[in-house]
Amino acid sequence: MQGISKSRHVHLMDALLQLETLLGKECECLQQATEYRVDLENMHSNYERLLEELARQITNYEVMYSHVKIQFLGKKLKELKKEISVEMPGFPVLVQNIRIAYGT
After folding, report:
1. Considering all CA atoms of the chain, what is the largest pairwise distance in Å, rounded to the nearest integer?
2. Is the N or C terminus of the chain more exposed, i.e. has fewer CB atoms within 10 Å?
3. What is the pLDDT of residues 47-99, one digit of tens each?
4. pTM of this structure
5. Please, are residues 97 and 79 in contact by the beta-carbon 8 Å criterion?
6. 74 closest CA partner among 102, 103, 95, 104
7. Which of 35, 5, 37 is nearest to 18 (CA)?
8. ∠89-92-96 over CA atoms, to 5°?
9. What secondary structure letter does DSSP report for 24?
10. Using an 8 Å Cβ cutoff, are 31 and 41 in contact?
C-alpha cells in the first residue's frame, strides 16, 4: 500500500479546475468534472485526517511502550532477579523473560 502523493493530487485538482474553466457552462461534462474534483478533495481531506490520527496513535503507543518496558517491566524484573535465587524453579523463566524484554 502506498500513500497518496500530495503533489499528484494538487496537479490533478489544478487540471480539473482548468478544465472546468475551459468548458464553461456549455458542456454537460462540466458537472462530472466538478463532482470528480469535489469527491477527490473530500477523499484527500479524509486521508490527511486519518494520517494525523495514525501519527497520534503511533506516538501514544511509543510513549506507552517505553513506559511499560522501562518503568514497569524493567523495574519488576530487576526486583525479581534480586529475590529469586539461581536454584529456584522460576529462575529459568525469569531469565527467559529478561531476554525477551530486552531483546537479547
Report:
1. 90
2. N
3. 999 999 999 999 999 999 999 988 888 787 777 777 776 677 777 777 787 77
4. 0.69
5. no
6. 102
7. 37
8. 150
9. T
10. no
pLDDT in tens, 12-60: 999 999 998 888 777 778 888 999 999 999 999 999 999 999 999 999 9
Rounded to whole angstroms, how far apart are CA atoms 101 and 103? 6
Q: Got the DSSP string for 60-76?
A: HHHHHHHIIIIIIIIHH
Element (H, E) at 25: none
State residue 85 phi and psi, 5-degree precision.
-85, 165
Distance CA 28, CA 83 (A): 81
The cell for 17 is: 479546475
For residues 45 and 66, the answer to whether their CB atoms sit within 8 Å is no
Asked if 77 and 70 touch (Cβ cutoff 8 Å), the reply is no
**Do the beta carbons of residue 54 and residue 47 sit within 8 Å?**
no
Report how far residue 81's alpha carbon sits from residue 86's, in angstroms, rounded to the nearest whole number: 9
- 5 touches 36 (CB < 8 A): no
